[in-house]
Each structure stands twice: as structure tokens, then as C-alpha cells.
Amino acid sequence: xxxxxxxxxxxxxxxxxxxxxxxxxxxxxxxxxxxxxxxxxxxxxxxxxxxxxxxxxxxxxxxxxxxxxxxxxxxxxxxxxxxxxxxxxxxxxxxxxxxxxxxxxxxxxxxxxxxxxxxxxxxxxxxxxxxxxxxxxxxxxxxxxxxxxxxxxxxxxxxxxxxxxxxxxxxxxxxxxxxxxxxxxxxxxxxxxxxxxxxxxxxxxxxxxx
Amino acid sequence: xxxxxxxxxxxxxxxxxxxxxxxxxxxxxxxxxxxxxxxxxxxxxxxxxxxxxxxxxxxxxxxxxxxxxxxxxxxxxxxxxxxxxxxxxxxxxxxxxxxxxxxxxxxxxxxxxxxxxxxxxxxxxxxxxxxxxxxxxxxxxxxxxxxxxxxxxxxxxxxxxxxxxxxxxxxxxxxxxxxxxxxxxxxxxxxxxxxxxxxxxxxxxxxxxxxxxxxxxxxxxxxxxxxxxxxxxxxxxxxxxxxxxxxxxxxxxxxxxxxxxxxxxxxxxxxxxxxxxxxxxxxxxxxxxxxxxxxxxxx
Lengths: 210, 299
Description:
The structure holds two protein chains of two kinds.
Chain A: E1 3-8, H1 17-26, E2 36-42, E3 49-55, H2 64-68, E4 74-76, E5 83-85, H3 95-99, E6 106-108, H4 122-127, E7 135-137, H5 143-147, H6 153-156, E8 163-167, H7 174-182, E9 185-186, E10 197-200
Parallel strand pairs in A: 1-10
Antiparallel strand pairs in A: 1-8, 2-3, 4-5, 6-7, 9-10
Chain B: H1 6-10, H2 28-50, H3 53-73, H4 91-113, H5 122-147, H6 160-181, H7 189-213, H8 218-229, H9 233-257, H10 261-285
Helix pairs in contact in B: 2-3, 2-5, 2-6, 2-10, 3-4, 3-6, 4-5, 5-6, 6-7, 6-10, 7-9, 8-9, 9-10
């Protein structure tokens, strides 16, 4: 099994619900974004357009972060291809961050709170236990949710249903069909990581009825 | 200060995202550590070749100091030994193995050289060979640690490891210049000066070649722009070119014919080392990731 995701850039409405859902699910401290969005204006008037690219860990089949990790903290799970970090093994050398072309990783130097001088909120107190200062963190495809048979929070909470999650090894799974039929592409394929997150182009003929 | 640095958020929209984790803030300790360990390995080798014990001793001290400073960069220094776990794939792991092999064996060899036992004993010879193996690993690992980062074209060059070896040799020769300044006048100054000039020429040539090979890549050109006129230009021109090349080259070349005295050697060595540190800093700070969008991302 190889979990993966297809993000339809035509359906995406740039609402940041994925980013907020991820923050809510994972209680990430300020400055740490497991899911984030690259937003850029391209072209010039009258042909200007805004490119919005939702990003997360690509859970690559050939992850360069795993290769460079000196402790084995970053590893790919055999059962489903999810790339994980063992916080007890991570020394905070940040080699994985320089190796990742998708900027999916964050170094948590210390646990910060959202309301300086006011201490941790009850939500932060409950959620920050899973974060370890001095280590690197990233998206884990909501591993806890996967264990319960749920899809990642970013996919579950996308109001435009732009994210399709499933098993890429299953040729009949929803993401596999989208990749095959709609011409989904990977980011930076020449990096050789074979990412498990695919994108459907924003500009393509309207024909789907999902 | 409770808020994250603004750069974290501004980087999210940057086409050419700067590499920061090994360049900014506490990462300066990593730059210093890599510089010291490279120069230390070079000092060990050159000291042995020209028979200047003080250079070897300085080299050993630089490696030990570099290793200690390296710990300051880690988020969990108490877990540092866990970095030995993946020598089959990680150059950081190989580097740690090399340092742990080098330091005790080199120290034991030095103890013999300073009279604790004969350097011709079988024990000393074994220590010497093991220290040289460790030294080779230290020379090699840093360049590869950077060169494996495919997402950072300035680093991802087959020449970078060779370039870092030449930088280590130049640093070692600079330590030898400093050692020479504090050694009896009978030492072979010409050999040290020749080593330093040769290593400097090799380093400059490889650096220029590496940049020239990367000119086709827009991301490398972006890094070059940072070196030439961006935020790193002061360190590149002031630190590396002027302080690290012009001043020591002038001093060493002058001293080939006429003696410039110990003070001149000392200044040449220190400025050379300062330039090498600036070079490492520039290489880390000017690094940029391939863009997610655009020429090598989606159009």
C-alpha cells in the first residue's frame, strides 16, 4: 500500500481551510505549518493570474530526507509508505530540511504559544504535548486519523473537495483513477523523489463530474 | 521573543526560497564547526608531511573544537552519538564515525611525537594509519553532506566535495603558517608556503569552475547574484576575497624571497583562516532552493 493524495488546482478555491484544519488537528505551534500554501502572482495585466499551490509533505516513494537522516529518525513506513519522524531519535541536525525540495519540514527550536505573555491556552496545553523542542517536524498524513480509518484532516475539511486521498498502489482507487484519467502531475519530478502527492492542473477542459 | 521570525512566513511566497536552516541564527556554529574540522584535518596532514608537530597539534585541536561547537548546533546534543546509526546512507553519520576515529588515534600519535613513546613503535604506526583514515573521512564528509542536497543547486555539484577538500588543505596550510610562526627558525618555511599557495590556487580554481558549471541553472545564478551584490556580498568580497585571498597571498608571495618574519606568517595564517570561514559562510548563506513553480516547477 502507498498512501497518496491528488490535489485538484481547478477545484481549489484558495480558502486555507486545509491549513487551518491541519493546525487544528495537529496543534502546531506558531511558525510550524505541516500544510501550507504557496501563492504567487504570475504574468502582467491583462494576462495576470494568481497561482495557488497547496503544499504538504509529499511522502515520497524515494524520500531524500530518509536517505540523509543520520539517526534513522526519519523513516518510511513499510505498510503504507507514509514518511514519519521519530521525535525520540531526531537530534535536530536539519539535514532532512536541506534535502527536501518541497519545504515540508520545520525545525521547532522551542515551543511557542500563540498569545505571548498569557501562557498556554487549554487547547495549546492539550495539544503541545506531541511536539518536541529541538527536533524537526512535518506532516504525517494525520497518522492517528489513518489508524482510525479516517482520511487526513486537510482532505476531510476541504470544502471544495479538491483533495482526494487513497492508495496509489490500488489502480482502482480514487487518486489512481484521477492520476491516470486526468493527467495529474508531480512537483519537481526531476528531483527524483517520486512524490506521492499529485496535482491536477488548474487549466484543463471541464469534463469531470465527481 | 515569542513570535516566529517573519522569514518563515515571507519564505512561503518566495519563488527562490533561501536556504536558512544551515545559514542563519545558531547555524553559524555549524559553519564554524565545518570550517574548523576541515582546517584541522588539513593541519594534521600537512603537519605530518612537512614534519611540523605544532601544525598537527593545532589541527587536532581544531577538529576537537569543531566537534564540540557542532554539538551547539544540534537541537538535542545529548543524542549526538545516535548520529552514528546510519553510516550506510548518511554522510553526517560517516563524518561522526571519522571524527571519533580520528581524535583518539591522532591524540595517541601526538603523545608519542611529544615523547610519551616512540613514534616508530608498532602502536604509534597503527595510530597514525587510523588517524589518517579518520582524517580522510573528515575531509570527505562535509562536501558530500552539502552535495547530496539535490534541491539546492549551489551545493549539488560533483565538484563541491573536491572543493571542500582543497579548502581543508588550505586551512591546514594556514594552521601550518601559524605553527611556523611559533616554531624554531630551522623549520622549512618554503614547504609550508608552497603548500598554502598550491591549496589556495586549487581552491580558487575549483570554486570558479563549480560556479561556471552552474551558470546554466537559474537558481545557481540567483545564488551568484547574492554573492556578488546581495546580502552576502560583504562577506564574499570583504571576508573571502580581500581578507582571505589578497592579504595572505601578498604576504606569502612576498615572503618567498625575503623573510617577512614570524608576525607576517602569523597574519597570513590568520587572514587565510578568516577568509576560509567567510567562504563557508557565503556558500551556506547564498544557497537557494529550486523554485516550486517556474522553470523547474510547474509552468
